[in-house]
Design brief:
Layout: H1 3-10, E1 15-20, E2 30-35, E3 43-44, E4 51-52, E5 54-62, E6 65-74, H2 84-101, E7 115-119, E8 126-134, E9 145-153, H3 161-176, H4 191-209, H5 222-243, H6 247-252, H7 254-271, H8 274-282, H9 289-301, E10 305-307, E11 315-319, E12 325-335, E13 338-350
Parallel strand pairs: 6-7, 7-9
Antiparallel strand pairs: 1-2, 2-5, 3-4, 5-6, 8-9, 10-13, 11-13, 12-13
């Protein structure tokens, strides 16, 4: 049993436990635990030295054992849109996508694979993800420990449901997705920007299909989340579909490289199988935008048969590599490892045997 749960039970805290089945085939069961009594002693944050007396936990169930993956700390006070319980419910959905669909778990090098989220009442509005040392570890008999932390500052000012989804998804992307660095971009490390675009794209689809309801998204409905996707994702993916990746922009960096990378990665999430998207994230050795473009082609060529979702396009550019063949469409043009395909049926990339 996790040390934190043992601590809370030993102090007699009242708590509510809910098991949540995965939304994906063969996915893992998660457990959301919310403690209704205040923590005593309170938890101090490594940054800012704020104290928190409220706690909700997202845990992973494995047979008869449980392991914490996300702990959300908050403070007593007036009702806010983003509470520990609502934030935990939101992060549970993102963790399910990461773990069950992408096969990405939290790094065990920090907090034994658990991310600590602090809903701070102080600070300037916004969020931050940090790797740091925690002087008040939750594991007994251990000194300071390396932790993966997320801070949501001035949480009371976060009153818009869509902005709450975007802010939390952004910081979770920083905390969990493989990093990519783009110099002189709006944000140098862009895994947070990718996270909000990937996660909100999936949330929009899940809201539309009924796999989740708006209670999970702080009240943001399908229309509002889809409006974000239209403005922040579709506009970046469309150039990749129409013209292929922009190699010059990826190499240049700055805002052009930022948009080109996000568009290419979001394209991979939208048009290629989830296992190919996941491999493209982890095969990038130099953590650059150009390196990601190479990693995406490598991820495609690893599989003998790769299905491509045309998403209603009559023609689209697809990554085929040097030896890949196209089924379900006619090749109209080639550019490096990519080709323009006129869709005739179910588009597939067929690679030779290793």
């Amino acid at each position: 049993m996790p040390a934190l749960l043992l601590f809370c039970l030993s102090t007699g805290l009242d708590w509510h436990r809910t098991e949540v089945p995965s939304r994906f085939p063969n996915g893992a069961v998660r457990i959301v635990k919310t403690f209704s009594d205040p923590l005593s002693p309170q938890k101090r944050s490594p940054l800012g030295d704020w104290s928190f007396d409220r706690l909700s936990v997202v845990a992973l169930k494995d047979k008869d054992s449980e392991s914490d993956r996300i702990r959300v700390f908050g403070s007593s006070g007036p009702d806010r849109l983003v509470t520990t319980g609502r934030a935990a419910a939101f992060f549970e959905v993102l963790f399910d996508l990461n773990y069950s669909a992408f096969r990405l778990d939290h790094s065990p090098q920090f907090g034994d694979g658990c991310i600590d989220v602090y809903l701070a009442t102080g600070g300037d509005p916004g969020g931050q993800q940090l790797f740091s040392e925690d002087p008040q570890p939750l594991r007994p008999y251990v000194g300071s420990s390396r932790v993966n932390t997320v801070y949501i500052y001035d949480v009371g000012s976060l009153t818009d449901p869509l902005e709450a989804c975007r802010e939390l998804a952004h910081e979770y992307g920083h905390a969990t997705l493989p990093p990519v660095r783009i110099p002189n971009a709006p944000e140098e490390w862009v895994n947070g920007d990718l996270g909000e675009r990937i996660y909100l794209s999936w949330l929009a689809d899940a809201l539309k299909s009924g796999r989740i309801d708006s209670a999970v998204t702080f009240g943001a409905d399908f229309r509002s989340v889809r409006a974000y996707v239209s403005g922040k994702v579709d506009k970046l993916v469309s150039p990749v579909v129409l013209r292929g990746p922009d190699a010059a922009a990826l190499a240049k960096g700055g805002r052009p490289g930022f948009d080109a990378y996000l568009g290419l990665a979001a394209y991979a999430f939208r048009h290629l199988p989830l296992d190919v998207f996941r491999r493209s994230l982890v095969l990038n050795p130099d953590q650059t935008a150009s390196g990601y473009a190479k990693a995406l082609v490598e991820a495609v060529t690893e599989k003998r048969d790769v299905s491509v979702s045309d998403r209603g396009s009559k023609a689209l550019w697809i990554p085929v590599g040097a030896a890949g063949q196209v089924a379900g469409g006619t090749v109209r043009a080639r550019k490096g490892a990519w080709c323009l395909v006129a869709v005739k049926g179910k588009v597939r990339i067929l690679n030779p045997a290793p």
